[in-house]
Amino acid sequence: MLRHPNCGRLLVSSVLGRLPLGMVPVALILAARADGHSLARASLLAALYGITPALGLPLLGRLADRRGLPLPCHLGAVLVAVGLSTLALAGTTHLPLTAVCVVLAGAGCPPLEGGLRSLWHVVLPDDAHVRTAYTLDSSTQEIVYVTGPALAIAMATCLSPAAALALAAAVSLAGAAAFATARPARTWRAAPRHRERLGVLRPPAMRPLLFSLVFLGATIGALDVAGIAVADEQNAAWLAGALPAVFSAAGLLGGVLFARLQPVTAPGPRHLMWLGAAFAAGWLPLLAPLPAPAILVLAMLPGALFVPLLTVASLTVTTLAPQGTTTEAVGWMSSAIRLGLAGGTALAGPVGGHFAVPLMAAAGGALLLSARIAPTPAANAV
């Protein structure tokens, strides 16, 4: 797939432009702590950043579907750069200004994920290559949330938290510019769309699918808290970072295997239902009292299923999307997952970080996916 013209550039620049999504929450916490804020207040700032892309991505995605990709990508990157650069220069001591900058940096996230998935159908020759590209794209998202925090911590340690924020601003600008100036991104235009009150949400199957993605995001948000709680219980501080890292590594492996073994025909609602059920069942062994090494090994099962489930869900979202709304549809998908991340984190804290929270969230998503999710005749992927 990567041998085809422009594919490598589009994928790498998209990942680069999304790297701040992994960098900024950690950099914000470190910057706020350095400015004398409590951990609770610093975490609230990080949570605010985590939620605001859920508001901006569908709007920028709609703008991309109407006006092309360069305008929303450049506009979003400038908003991110302004917000993060102001934080790097002014610090976080003035809370109202800090909150405004955090909202700008979050809501301005360029629609690179949706744009990339709209372009796969243009730069690749057939549906089999497109499905492989979706799997690879879903797998590389794990890189954002593993490399991003590590890069932010390294910059904050070697230089300062402000330097980490400044680097995130530069990375966002560089990634969005490289993506938006690629020939396919400059020339792509969405198919004409019909004016409808509900737009992307019009297909009846789209709403339960998006709600299921909220639950899917909640499993990941709860996992981070569960890692911290288990690390405290077992007096193994290393487990707090190792658990999400192992989960992400298993996701990369699962994505590669899924790309190699996926069926010749496009995955359908039946695949989505069975993947959702298997993902929920994968959390059951973690309910037992286990030593730390066993927890890491067992976390690999839901981790390996996460990327295939996300891939098939992404394909289904773009298939269900009405004509001319693909980029906006992926924005709604990203918003649903990010809302779930925030909700899972918020819910897991009060219950002590128990693995029952990701299990219940995954089970809720599986129930929603068991609804009949099939593309309507009017739906069109591109």
Task: Describe what is shown at a glance.
The chain is mostly helical and 382 residues long.
Estimate the helix proportion, in percent.
Answer: over 70%
Structural class: mainly alpha
Give a quick account of the main beta sheet: strands, pairing sense, barrel closure: none
The CATH superfamily of the largest domain is known as MFS general substrate transporter like domains
Strand content: under 5%
Poorly predicted regions: 374-382
Number of helices: 16
How many distinct domains? 2
Q: How many distinct beta strands?
A: 0
Mean of all residue-level pLDDT scores: 83
The Rg value, from CA coordinates, equals: 20 Å
CATH class of the largest domain: Mainly Alpha
CATH architecture of the largest domain: Up-down Bundle
According to CATH, what is the topology of the largest domain?
Growth Hormone, Chain: A
Termini separation: 19 Å
List keywords for this structure.
single chain, 16 helices, disordered C terminus, mainly alpha, Growth Hormone, Chain: A, 2 domains, 382 residues, 0% strand
Description:
- The protein has 382 residues and is mainly α.
- The protein has 2 domains: 7-187, Up-down Bundle (Growth Hormone, Chain: A), CATH 1.20.1250.20; 200-369, Growth Hormone, Chain: A.
- It contains 16 helices and no strands.
- The protein is globular, with a radius of gyration of 20 Å.
- Residues 374-382 have low confidence and may be disordered.
